[in-house]
UniProtKB/TrEMBL annotation:
Protein name as annotated: AAA+-type ATPase
Highest taxon of source: Eukaryota
Signal peptide positions on this chain: none
Gene Ontology molecular function: any one: ATP hydrolysis activity
Lineage: Eukaryota, Viridiplantae, Streptophyta, Klebsormidiophyceae, Klebsormidiales
Alphabetized UniProt keyword annotations: ATP-binding, Nucleotide-binding
Sequence similarity: Belongs to the CbxX/CfxQ family.
PANTHER family reported for this sequence: AAA-TYPE ATPASE FAMILY PROTEIN / ANKYRIN REPEAT FAMILY PROTEIN, AAA-TYPE ATPASE FAMILY PROTEIN _ ANKYRIN REPEAT FAMILY PROTEIN
InterPro entries: AAA+_ATPase, ATPase_AAA_core, CbxX/CfxQ, CbxX/CfxQ_RuBisCO_ESX, P-loop_NTPase
Domain AAA+ ATPase per the UniProt entry, residue ranges: 26-164
Length: 264
């Protein structure tokens, strides 16, 4: 869907270069639906670079906002704050995270959040920017239905599914390979294979907890495992390989720690 828009934008440039007098396409405003940690913000940042490279936006920037960045405490303040964020995002992408929080009132009207949402919608067609509304799938239904013009202005809805245990392991391995992090240089023991770690995650962490964390587990698990490694090593340990190798016991302890948090 989005690639098709980008392709069409490039074709329009060719059409104009050959004399066709066609107007500009409407910005690809979107709704991102999905649980936390499914990559919505990261995709928005990648999208900014893609749209900038093809000339669809002037700057490869994403201005990330939430309710507190848009909503004021008294009459008149919300419009001022919202317009300031719109100006800040001009030429790039305005990413409204947890957009459903703008509609906290039961009737979706008697709240300053609705004012912020209406302000964004009223300026989307005239502003030089792309707007992405993001949030959990179920509460975002309220946003989709809040205004008869919403679906007309935001014509693309993209769902981000939960990560599978195997995907979480892949992201975890990628994080271990990153530089300048607290995990730089650490590695997994030979028995910590992709399938073995994925099976551990699937059996040890309840599905509901995995859906709340998703990609976040890829950072949390090795960090917890490293702490367990530190705990079981002697302070006199000098062997470099031993100091830098996370074993299955360390990962098992990390999974148990995450699972215990799910009880609260």
């Amino acid at each position: 869907m989005l690639l098709q828009w980008c392709k069409g934008y490039a074709l329009d440039k060719k059409r104009r270069s050959q004399g066709a007098e066609i107007g500009l396409r409407k910005p690809p405003n979107m709704v991102f639906l999905g649980n936390p940690g499914t990559g919505k913000t990261k995709v928005a940042r990648m999208l900014a670079h893609i749209l900038h490279n093809i000339g669809a936006i002037r700057h490869a920037k994403v201005v990330e906002v939430q309710r507190t960045d848009l909503v004021g405490c008294y009459v008149g303040r919300t419009g001022i704050k919202t317009r300031a964020q719109l100006r800040k995002a001009e030429g790039g992408i305005l990413f409204v995270d947890e957009a459903y929080r703008l509609l906290t009132a039961e009737d979706n009207t008697s709240d300053y959040g609705r004012e912020a949402l209406d302000e964004i919608l009223s300026q989307m067609d005239s502003k030089d920017l792309v707007v992405i509304f993001a949030g959990y799938t179920v509460p975002m239904k309220k946003v989709l239905d809040c205004n008869e013009g919403f679906r007309r202005r935001v014509g693309r809805i993209i769902e981000f599914p939960d990560y599978t245990p195997l995907q979480i392991v892949d992201i975890m391995n990628a994080k271990l390979a990153e530089e300048r992090t607290c995990l730089q240089g650490f590695k997994l023991a030979p028995d910590c294979t992709r399938d073995a770690v994925a099976a551990l995650i699937e059996s040890g962490i309840p599905a509901e907890e995995r859906s709340k964390r998703n990609g976040g587990l890829a950072g949390t698990l090795p960090e917890y495992a490293r702490e367990h490694l530190d705990g079981r090593l002697s302070a006199e340990t000098d062997d470099f390989d031993e100091l830098m190798t996370i074993g299955m016991k360390d990962l098992e302890a990390a999974v148990s720690q995450v699972a215990s948090c799910a009880k609260f």
